[in-house]
Design brief:
By secondary structure, the chain is an alpha/beta fold. 41% of the residues lie in helices and 16% in strands. The chain is built from ten helices and eight strands. Helix 2 packs parallel to helix 3 and helix 8 crosses helix 9.
Length: 260
């Protein structure tokens, strides 16, 4: 298992990490946010099935400096009681993400505190979960691509297509040469071919044309129309060539179906 180091993290970066964990672990349809800070709001939400449980999920991210020491544990204890009392909105499941490293004894204490505080709000049907540093380590071990994104930032090999093309996908991008959000016309036959490929058992398909013929725009339209609506598929972009084959294979070790 990779060692988790928090030295380059802050609240905003930790929230991005939690968003990425939910993308792989829970659902790509989980609703995530990027604003940091105590905004009395929700960090991530999801309605549906995760594991054996079905219902309305609420996720809160609590980052505390190094994640070690009694001061961080005391702050986390305040986070649990304050957040539940002030922000609980009747969800079925409440999951608190934190980088704080907890012993088994301290984890059990805070777990009981969370569930007791929920009952004090008058709701007996909500379950509290505490995903602390050890839980996060386990989740990242199951999805090595997340470790690559946040702890191997100088050698990121695969990115989600939304992140890789974020400037071109912006609706306020006035550079006509690099727009990927503009209205798409025609090419329905090509889109059908791509759709059939996705449904087939084939592992590779090549789109070949000269530069400027719209290969990328066609793919983006297919991703937006079809792939983005399917839970099991995740679209990634290979950022560069000349990579180590073993390292690349390790990044693909996930339960997600990857298209890149």
């Amino acid at each position: 298992m990779q060692e988790i180091r928090w030295n380059h993290f802050n609240g905003k970066q930790f929230q991005k990490l939690c968003n990425s964990i939910l993308l792989f672990e829970v659902s790509k349809f989980a609703h995530v946010f990027t604003a940091e800070g105590a905004d009395s709001g929700i960090d991530q939400s999801f309605v549906g099935k995760y594991g054996d449980e079905i219902g309305k999920w609420r996720f809160q991210d609590k980052f505390h400096n190094s994640g070690k020491g009694s001061a961080d544990i005391a702050a986390l204890k305040r986070d649990i009681t304050t957040d539940i009392k002030n922000n609980y909105k009747g969800e079925d499941f409440l999951v608190l993400f934190t980088n704080v490293n907890l012993t088994t004894k301290k984890y059990n204490e805070l777990f009981v505190l969370g569930n007791q505080t929920i009952k004090e709000t008058g709701n007996n049907n909500c379950t509290f979960f505490l995903w602390h540093e050890a839980t996060i380590e386990g989740l990242i071990a199951n999805h090595p691509l997340i470790f690559n994104w946040f702890w191997e930032r100088d050698s990121v090999l695969l990115q989600t297509y939304h992140e890789y093309f974020q400037q071109q996908l912006k609706t306020n991008n006035d550079d006509l040469r690099y727009q990927l959000h503009n209205t798409f016309f025609g090419r329905e036959t090509d889109l059908d071919v791509l759709d059939l490929f996705l449904k087939s058992s084939k592992s590779a398909l090549a789109i070949i044309a000269n530069g400027g013929y719209g290969k990328t725009r066609l793919c983006i339209e297919f991703f937006e129309r079809t792939v983005s609506r399917q839970e099991d598929w995740l679209v990634l972009v290979l950022t560069h060539t000349g990579f180590n084959a073993n390292h690349f294979a390790r990044l693909l070790d996930t339960n997600r179906r990857l298209l890149f």
